[in-house]
């Protein structure tokens, strides 16, 4: 009986910042894969990296930002890739960014926007992205993040 392979080679990261008025999500407009779509930070895990290390690296490479606090979101983004007939699963991480830190985009993106959760859910293209954003809002903003999800980067 044929099986659909499950691939786990990438990470997803939701960057958040607290302002005086609200918490905002960073979305990036893509130039390469999913051209023109607004998405969170994502990328492949490189040889010798853990998933959380890949998330930190991708955050830095794609935005020039550093996480003040990094958490496992305790959820995986998952989707079916028709061209590979495979299911891809990516662990999701949450990074809290200082409000004054400036985004410096790499060539993979044409724009960035800090937006509230409701606007972010309207901007992202897929139900899986919206589900991740709902989960992150509920577990990291409405509720206090569980301390066991905090990643000690040292």
UniProtKB/TrEMBL annotation:
Pfam families on file: NUDIX (PF00293)
UniProt superkingdom: Bacteria
GO molecular function: 8-oxo-7,8-dihydrodeoxyguanosine triphosphate pyrophosphatase activity
InterPro entries in alphabetical order: NUDIX_hydrolase-like_dom_sf, NUDIX_hydrolase_CS, NUDIX_hydrolase_dom
UniProt KW keywords: Hydrolase
Residues of the signal peptide: none
Key word Hydrolase present: yes
Keyword Hydrolase: yes
Protein known as: 8-oxo-dGTP diphosphatase
């Amino acid at each position: 009986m044929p099986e659909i392979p499950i691939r786990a080679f990438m990470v997803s990261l939701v960057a958040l910042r607290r302002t005086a008025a609200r918490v905002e999500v960073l979305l990036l407009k893509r130039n390469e894969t999913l051209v023109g779509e607004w998405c969170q930070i994502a990328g492949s895990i490189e040889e010798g990296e853990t998933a959380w290390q890949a998330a930190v690296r991708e955050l830095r490479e794609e935005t020039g930002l550093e996480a003040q606090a990094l958490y496992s979101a305790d959820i995986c983004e998952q989707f079916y890739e028709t061209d590979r007939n495979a299911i891809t699963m990516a662990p999701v991480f949450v990074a809290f960014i200082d409000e004054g830190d400036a985004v410096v985009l790499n060539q993979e993106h044409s724009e960035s926007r800090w937006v509230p959760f409701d606007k972010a859910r309207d901007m992202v293209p897929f139900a899986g992205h919206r589900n991740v954003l709902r989960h992150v809002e509920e577990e990291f903003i409405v509720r206090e993040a569980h301390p066991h999800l905090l990643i000690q980067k040292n």
